[in-house]
Design a protein that fits this description.
heterodimer, A: alpha+beta, 5 helices, globular, B: alpha+beta, GMP Synthetase, Chain A, domain 3, three-stranded mixed beta sheet, BolA-like_sf (chain B)
């Protein structure tokens, strides 16, 4: 719930821009990679673990501003949200689909060598 | 505001012209949660992210109170029962 008024603050947008620019693979999730607090977030962490690539996680449960801001930044209503090389890839269903058809591995590997 | 399975179905039918649609209520006590399998000709030629965005934007209002949503968007040709 919450009905937070729209408007992604410019400082927050800039901070997110910088974060996704300096980390190739970032999962914005509920909980952390060591302690996911939702089944969907856990699934995504497991996929990234299987891909065996370096990645960062950001716990959106610890920051309500970030949580609302990310929804607007990504134009995506739910978490987790995966970013690879500054680009929004999708949520959990998309990650599963791209993982199963091999595209996720390609996307991530391409990003890591770029 | 609680969201019902029927509400999700009627919004998707109205906005996405599905040839096949299965909406399941999967909430296990933690709030409204749905599993949506949808086939629509509108998904043809669209990448997976775009297809999901179309479903999300059709359900913008409902998503304010839906806790979790699983979406499987396919074209009518890709639909498997």
């Amino acid at each position: 719930g919450g009905g937070v008024a729209g408007g992604l603050r410019p400082e927050l947008k800039e901070a997110i821009d910088q974060y996704v620019a300096s980390n190739k693979v970032v999962l914005f999730m509920k909980g952390s990679k060591l302690f996911p607090q939702c089944g969907f977030s856990n699934t995504c962490v497991q996929i990234l673990n299987v891909l065996n690539v370096p990645y960062e996680t950001v716990n959106i449960l610890e920051d309500e501003d970030l949580r609302q801001g990310m929804k607007e930044y990504s134009k995506w209503p739910t978490f987790p949200q995966l970013y690879v090389d500054k680009e929004f890839i999708g949520g959990c269903d998309i990650m599963i689909e791209l993982y199963q058809n091999g595209e996720l591995q390609e996307i991530v590997e391409k990003a890591l060598v770029s | 505001m609680a969201v019902s399975k029927e509400q999700v179905e009627s919004v998707l039918k109205e906005k996405l012209q599905p040839t096949n649609l299965v909406v399941e209520d999967t909430s296990g006590g933690c709030g409204a949660s749905f599993d949506v399998k949808i086939a629509s000709p509108l998904f043809a030629g669209k990448r997976v992210l775009e297809r999901h965005r179309m479903v999300n934007s059709a359900l913008t209002e409902e998503l304010k109170s839906i806790h979790a949503l699983t979406i499987k968007p396919v074209t009518p040709e890709q639909w498997v029962e």
